[in-house]
Design goal:
Elements (H helix, E strand, L loop, with lengths): L1 E6 L7 H10 L3 E3 L3 H5 L7 H20 L3 E6 L2 H10 L5 H15 L4 E5 L16 H17 L4 E4 L3 H14 L1
Helix pairs in contact: 1-7, 3-5, 4-5, 4-6
Length: 174
């Protein structure tokens, strides 16, 4: 049986720490996220960048679908949607063109775990400028899209160990 699990959220909410703990515990993880790859590249336009991110995420999802068992995605279509909705450099028409592809990818996610923002200090990584307000807007867009796409999700809080326990116990029940 194949299950696709997304670890989703804005920068600084603890996704990497969760992913690292799941991997160390023997979990199958698809990483790095497409947005992290794209952040280190140059693109001719915002549309080219978004196209790269969506295409890379589609490839990562295809890879995950070939694995027997549970696969954890470091970000997913849910994150891509949130980023896209907050990106003022993309027109509404461009966003609409990507949205159908993101909805199709979201339909393949069996469960999403979404760390709550504001529990950890934001550590700028020099690639993206983030602040608490941006984290909250990202989180709201992510939750809204998960609901629209009928992706079951659980918000996470607490220490990394607490979050991993919540993930494991939730997946045992699901």
């Amino acid at each position: 049986m194949n299950r696709i699990i997304s670890i989703s959220g804005a920068q600084g909410v603890g996704k990497t720490s969760i992913i690292t703990a799941l991997f160390a515990d023997g979990g199958t993880v698809v990483t790095p996220s497409a947005s992290n790859i794209a952040a280190q590249m140059e693109f001719a336009s915002p549309i080219d960048k978004q196209s790269f991110i969506v295409g890379t995420m589609e490839s990562q999802l295809d890879q995950a679908l070939t694995v027997d068992g549970t696969v954890y995605l470091d970000r997913s279509a849910l994150d891509c949607y949130s980023y896209m909705m907050l990106d003022r450099s993309l027109s509404d028409l461009a966003k609409a063109e990507f949205e159908s592809r993101l909805r199709m990818m979201a339909s393949r996610i069996d469960y999403a775990f979404i760390p709550k923002p504001g529990e950890f200090a934001i550590k700028p990584n020099g690639v993206r400028s983030m602040d608490a307000d941006y984290q909250q807007r990202w989180h709201a867009a992510l939750i809204e899209f998960a609901k629209e796409c009928n992706v079951p999700y659980k918000e996470l809080s607490g220490s990394v160990a607490d979050r991993v326990k919540i993930i494991k116990s939730t997946l045992l029940k699901a």
